[in-house]
Amino acid sequence: METKKVSIVVPVYNVEKYLQSCIDSLVSQTYLNLEIILVDDASTDNCPAICDEAARKDGRIKVIHKNNGGAASARNAGLNIVTGDYVCFVDSDDYVENKYIQRLVNVLEQENADAAVCGFWYLYRDHLEKKGFSGIHTVMNQTDYLQRFLTDWTCGLIWNKIFRKETLKDVRFTEGHKIDDEFFTYKVIMNCKRVVLFKDPLYYYRMRATSVMSASSAYEERLLLDKIEYTQERFENVINRYPQLTQAYLEDLANSLIRFKRQSTYFSVAYSEVKKLIVKYQKRILVSNLNLKLKYSFIRAIYFEKKTKNSIEYNRQRKYEFFE
Questions:
Q1: With 70 as the cut, is the pLDDT of residue 66 above it?
Q2: SS3 of 11-33
Q3: Would you say the pTM of this structure is higher than 0.70?
């Protein structure tokens, strides 16, 4: 018997072409004890009507219509009303396997974990790419998973995970950014004692041209500024709570500053922010026990500039067929 309720928070904005597919995948879950919260962030297309019709057909669906505030604001609105024992997030232009919730809940409960993580697919028009955890089944404590954040970018994703509700009690999405997951997920992990990972790809992440190939330079700079802010914030929060991770996170900070310095040469505001962080952390990095090769690279990054390939142009040159 499914005694535990799962709340699924779905931010919705102008995705009428894909929304019904997302909703269909959620209402057809093999796990039935669900609360599906569709948060319409002032969509200007047919999404509000699609949400309302879905709620009319399935009593497990709740709809919030709110003023536009972005995905973080929409997710927060959904989090504020969840009543489930477990919580997960699905993007409204994606969809999931019908056993998505069942598998996440089973693994979570079998391992008495606070969070469960599955694999996923990148969905292009012409093909699929499998992503995520490459092992079979692994249980980690919070410090090991926070260590993994430094080498595995999928750790920061929000939509291939399920959490016990109590791990979210003091965590909300930081509004006003172009990236949301990174500012959120590591904070939840700090509230988790056990995290279980398994490789089964159960989530389909739709690769859309609007977010990848049509980005402006201003948008690209905003993303870089978010990464700069997130890296510093995460560094300070993690080492303050887990001093045993200081060496690893300081090494990551040094490498990140080197990379940010090169990337920011295209953008005046980001360049200024990176220089501020270099001034703030350079002494700590240079007097630390980090290896000499990294320190040398850091010094070169301070005094020499080397432009890297603009990621907008890189994505435009890729041969994949993106969705609109």
A1: yes
A2: EECCCHHHHHHHHHHHHCCCCCC
A3: yes
